[in-house]
Design goal:
The protein is α/β, with parallel strands linked by helices and 256 residues long. 46% of the residues lie in helices and 16% in strands. It is built from twelve helices and eight strands. Strand 1, helix 2 and strand 2 form a beta-alpha-beta unit. The longest helix has 17 residues.
Length: 256
């Protein structure tokens, strides 16, 4: 899977299947990349993955043949800048609630006069393999810009948010969305299910790719497909190790 193929899948409305990287251990990230996911989600918001290690995990993902999207800790141009310069194939902005916040995210990714991004790509420039003018006029835009819908305010402002130029896709965060309506963790509560349907209807009508970040719940994931989601993130490296360890321990316990 290359970035160009991934982009084509996105605009063609094909299903993109990904998983989350929480441990930030390049060897695990490379192994996950080799498993055949379309994309890996490197999470800097809720993990110990820092700015110095995220690039090593991006390199590991590429070594395994899988693009990497990086969720930064907050919708902050200062946090976005180094991740963009490292050459992430996509950048995810969490907790966007208004069109103004979405516009800030888009602006953080674009060079003047369209945006406020400062110039200084390193790995993104293939260490000099891409010319400066080629990068600033074309190549830099290959990094997909994704925002998360994870607050009731974002649902209420969704049409305005989805109208912002420069955003490529939207990913719903069910846990934070449930918390914003006073039902933290109850992600399949009827009220939440109705909100998901509303999100799906609006984004489908507007022709915007969207998806969900969740666990490995087949019925829940199938529900998201039924309302038009084409970006499905499920499971994570820590969970896979824990589940595998449990299975191995159970096997050993059966040996008399």
């Amino acid at each position: 899977m290359t970035q160009d193929v991934l982009y084509q899948k996105l605009i063609n409305g094909e299903v993109i299947r990904g998983s989350h990287v929480f441990a930030g251990m390049p060897v695990l990230t490379e192994a996950m990349a080799q498993a055949g996911f379309d994309v890996l989600w490197l999470d800097m918001e809720h993990t110990a993955i820092g700015i110095e290690s995220v690039v090593n995990n991006m390199i590991a993902a590429r070594a395994g043949g899988t693009p990497a999207w990086v969720r930064i800790p907050w919708n902050d141009p200062v946090r976005a800048k180094p991740v963009l310069d490292m050459g992430a194939e996509g950048i995810i902005f969490p907790y966007v609630r208004t069109a103004e916040e979405a516009a800030l995210a888009a602006s953080a990714c674009s060079y003047p006069p369209e945006g406020i991004r400062g110039y200084g790509p390193l790995r993104a420039l293939d260490y000099g393999g891409i010319t400066q003018m080629e990068y600033v006029t074309k190549t830099y835009r290959r990094c997909l810009r994704i925002i998360q819908i994870e607050h009731i305010d974002a649902v209420r402002n969704l049409r305005e948010i989805a109208s912002v130029e420069g955003i490529d896709a939207f990913i719903v965060g069910p846990n934070d969305l449930s918390g914003s309506v006073g039902k933290i963790g109850l992600v399949q509560d009827p009220e939440l299910m109705e909100l998901y349907r509303e999100i799906g209807a609006v984004l489908t009508e507007m022709g915007k790719p969207f998806g969900v970040s969740t666990g490995c719940n087949p019925a829940f994931l199938q529900f998201w497909r039924s309302i038009g989601a084409t970006i499905l993130f499920a499971g994570n490296d820590v969970g896979y190790v824990y589940e595998g360890a449990q299975a191995a321990k159970a096997l050993l316990n059966d040996i008399e």
